[in-house]
Amino acid sequence: MAKIALLIGVSEYLPEFPALPSTLKDVEAMKEVLGNSEMGGFDDIKVLKNSNRQQIEEAIYDLFADRNKDDVLLFYFSGHGVKSREGNLFLATPQTRKGQRGIVTPTAVGASVLQGQMNDSYSQRLVVILDCCYSGAFTKGMTAKGDENIDIQAELGGKGRAILMSSSAVQSSFESEGSELSIYTKYLVEGINTGAADTDNNGKISADELHQYVSEKVYEESPAMTPQFAPVKEGYRIYLASSPQDDPKLQYRRKVQEILRKNNGDIDFLNRFLLEELCKRYGISSEEAKAIESEEMEPYILFRNKLKRYEEIFSQAVEKSYPFTENTRETLREIQSLLGLRDEDVADIEERFLPELSESNSEVFAVAKAIETSPQNDEIELLSDKNVDYTKLREFLVNKEWKEADMETARCMLKVAGREEQGYLDIEDIENFPCTDLRTIDQLWVKYSNGKFGFSVQKKIYQELGGTKDYNREVWEKFGEKVGWRKGDEWLSYRELFEDKNLHYMGHLPGGGIRGVTRESGIDVGSSIAQRLVDYNI
């Protein structure tokens, strides 16, 4: 049995891509912890820096070829991840370039190459760690082979595969302010180096424990970045490193982590006394304790710094440029993304500084203004081609009873389409949905939410993401994330839609009348509604 790793870092690129100086330091940091006999314990580690496609593919072949079934094989990449027009992931090399059709695929290493070599390997313990943008796309088309009879060995952990990815299929990965390492690799190294990733305290760090540790740390510093984990068979239990079980410093660190998570990154006076007593019990000096606390508080401090920076920028933007043009709002979104902040992270800031309305999209501001200045401003006429009464919907909206209004919207739409007995709408129903009723429902939502909710708001967001009438799973999932229907790889339950922390999303409602049908039947009703709004010029 052997533990073998291939670590690849690419920092130099053609002008199409920015340089990534941290990647080479990422590789060296990973080599240090994996090669340490008391931590990773890897027997053979090969490092490639700024290598071309052929060199990388040959190294991938060598990593997986001629291995024994009990060998643990680890592939790590830090650099730019790029996607083809079909959504397939490629690892960029120094020669990678873009053409008229997007990425020139022969200049990059396709994820399919790595997947193919994994499939041909005799090893039954394979680990892939990708610290790059869109790394979550790696699992697209992934297949696995191997013995179905899983035999867990205490020394090695589970058989299978473990794929750890720094971001989702539609997300960028971020740098870490003030650190030489990328944010993802920084916490990979920290989890192994300190032993804190050993969450069950059994002296070994498994793939799923390392993912859990890194995800929590990344969330504390940059919540818009959501690391992904894709275990195959028992791959989540592959042991990657050892950790000290009874180290007093590790026990103290875990208590500090617990306190910070419960208190949003702060240590109150009572917990300060608790930590002081623990220092005495564990024999930890004040200098050692301070160092541990500083390390654990760092992600919270960095997150607060990002919020403060966004607040400074946004307040100046309101002072100089409000109401925002579409270009101004797009620039603010880009700044927010670069800072690694989600819409919910900046919602309070935007509400505090916007003069009157609390919308976070300039196009939504325009919609609200149009309604404010329209003849129906005082009272929207409740028109219907199917004699549907929208009085109750208006009452719910006036009273900000969002869940009741959402359920009433679904009920009204089913009645308009004559689908009350079936309880759902299909694409044909939407394509034949009367313009009058669709406009009435939309105007009510937009008016009484001050431009925050409504089908027309959702349409603009959907189109900006590249959505069309044709179903596109990636766009639909990205839309779900944008309007707060989807977190990570999971769609929120109907109950979760109406939790306070989710209601601030622009375009979040109405949700039940279309999202539920989309999820249950697999039909993209939402994109059809968007197209219908275009046809009706709503």
Characteristics:
Serine Threonine Protein Phosphatase 5, Tetratricopeptide repeat, 3-stranded antiparallel β-sheet, 538 residues, alpha/beta, 15 strands, 3 domains
Description:
The chain has 3 domains: 3-242, Rossmann fold, CATH 3.40.50.1460; 246-355, no CATH class; 356-536, Serine Threonine Protein Phosphatase 5, Tetratricopeptide repeat. It is built from 19 helices and 15 strands. It has helices at 22-35, 53-64, 111-120, 183-194, 207-221, 248-262, 269-282, 286-321, 326-338, 343-353, 362-372, 391-398, 402-417, 427-431, 435-448, 455-464, 473-482, 512-521, 525-536, and strands spanning 3-9, 44-49, 72-78, 81-83, 89-91, 98-99, 102-103, 109-110, 125-131, 160-165, 204-206, 228-233, 239-242, 486-487, 490-491. It has a 6-stranded mixed sheet with strand order 2-1-3-9-10-12, sandwiched between helices. It has a 3-stranded antiparallel sheet with strand order 4-5-8. The chain has a two-stranded antiparallel sheet with strand order 6-7. A hairpin with a 5-residue loop joins β4 (81-83) and β5 (89-91). The longest helix has 36 residues, at 286-321. The chain is globular.
Briefly summarize what is shown.
With about 550 residues, this protein is α/β, with parallel strands linked by helices.
SSE blueprint and pairings:
Layout: E1 3-9, H1 22-35, E2 44-49, H2 53-64, E3 72-78, E4 81-83, E5 89-91, E6 98-99, E7 102-103, E8 109-110, H3 111-120, E9 125-131, E10 160-165, H4 183-194, E11 204-206, H5 207-221, E12 228-233, E13 239-242, H6 248-262, H7 269-282, H8 286-321, H9 326-338, H10 343-353, H11 362-372, H12 391-398, H13 402-417, H14 427-431, H15 435-448, H16 455-464, H17 473-482, E14 486-487, E15 490-491, H18 512-521, H19 525-536
